[in-house]
What we know:
Layout: E1 16-20, H1 23-30, E2 34-43, E3 46-53, E4 56-62, H2 67-71
Amino acid sequence: MRLMSADAAVKPEQRTLVLTAFPAEADAVLIRTTLDDDPAAVVNGRHFYLGTLGGMKVIVAMTGIGMRNAAD
């Protein structure tokens, strides 16, 4: 791990967020995504997957708004 001084400017990596509504949709996107070596992050119980899709760096996540939730 490389430590940086407080004066060092850190430019965050830019990625495109791809949101899906339900598992089948997420699976269809993830099957076409080349996942990073350490692809999964869980934040507040939500899973985020890091990878590359169509030559672009992406984060794939599911909103959980499926057919049942939409009907409610």
